[in-house]
Amino acid sequence: MSIIEIKSLSVDYALGQNGVLHALRNVNLEVNAGESIAIVGESGCGKSTFASSLVKLLALNSKAAGQVLIDGNDVLAMTNRELEAIRGVKAGTIFQDPAASLNPVFSVKEQIEETITAHLKVRDKVELKQRAIKLLEETGIKETQRVYEAYPHQLSGGQQQRVMTAIALSCSPKILIADEPTTALDVTVQAQIIALLKRLKKERNLTLILITHDLHLALDLCARIIVMYAGEVVEDAEIKSETDSKHPYTRALFEIIPDINEDRHEFSVIPGEVPELKTVMNECYFRNRCVKAGKKCSESHPEMENGVRCFYPYTKGRLKA
Ligand SMILES: Nc1ncnc2c1ncn2[C@@H]1O[C@H](COP(=O)(O)OP(=O)(O)OP(=O)(O)O)[C@@H](O)[C@H]1O
Ligand SMILES: [Mg+2]
């Protein structure tokens, strides 16, 4: 059974005098328990909006439509009280900037233990400490006792992200949502956090939702890749390498991100601009930047078909007739 089922999810942001911005448009997705999926795409395509929708942590000026079912229950229809039973308990979250996500005025001890008390109603001090220390050990913290007593600013970026992960896992959620978990960290620490996520995913049999602009990181951690463009899913497929991908946008993402195995280290960008998110157009949103764009692309909007939203998808390296 799917642990997450997303039906026709759309999220708009009200821009006051400037109308409405369509950040997510009609997203449909099913995720099985234990599956790992990556959501990839350029900045502004709606990745974080998607992550926030899963636990209904949306901005006040947002309006969501559709359904986000976790274990069959619609998160978007839940009251704050009902959401308490979801956040942290069914789905833990870690974000890009651990320093901003941790509360600077509370110690690690207080932040982990408060989460456990709030959700699992454990109040025994000895048990709380045991649980906290075990979580810190599990996330690879070396000086557990010092980190346990420390305040966030006394920790390195890598330690902070491990603490965030410990908090996210403190109530044993089945789902872990990680929004750009390594972007703010330096390269060595990034690799350590990736190794940690891999290990935790396996040991805890987590359903991992990884949000990243880094396609190679996505390929490293997840078998299934969901590519987003202008608030839409444009490809949803098992992708191991460039030739598995069918959408010209996915191919373009492969081209701009240097492969660490190749002797090519410069970063480039996909030429052209992401379309205006304020309008709904009866055309393909990627067509102005697409090397394969044809007549149909400006005449109607492509629907998802066989995991790809494109009139002229690639088939194993070649263009469909
Ligand atoms: N509260 C808000 N009010 C208005 N617009 C918003 C709000 N939050 C996000 N947006 C806009 O919605 C779009 C999608 O934003 P989102 O943060 O989901 O993108 P993203 O893919 O996570 O980008 P990044 O890779 O930069 O993190 C962007 O154009 C963004 O500017
Ligand atoms: Mg984001």
Overview of the structural elements:
This protein is of the alpha/beta class. The chain contains 11 helices and 12 strands. The longest helix is centred in the middle third of the chain and has 17 residues, at 187-203. The structure holds adenosine-5'-triphosphate (ATP) and magnesium ion. Residues 13, 15, 21, 23, 41, 43-49, 59, 61, 213, 277 line the site of adenosine-5'-triphosphate (ATP). Residues 13, 15, 21, 23, 41, 43-49, 59, 61, 213, 277 line the site of adenosine-5'-triphosphate.
Beta-strand proportion = 15-25%
Distance between the termini: 37 Å
Which percent bin holds the helix content? 25-40%
Helical stretch tally: 11
- Main sheet specs: 6 strands, mixed
The quaternary organization reads as: single chain
Radius of gyration: 21 Å
Task: Just name the CATH architecture of the largest domain.
Answer: 3-Layer(aba) Sandwich
Q: State the secondary-structure class.
A: alpha/beta
Order of helices and strands: EEEHEEHEHHHHHEHEHEEHHEE
Q: What spatial form do the alpha-carbon principal axes imply?
A: globular
CATH class of the largest domain: Alpha Beta
CATH topology of the largest domain, by name, is Rossmann fold
Low-pLDDT runs of 5+ residues are none
The overall number of domains is 2
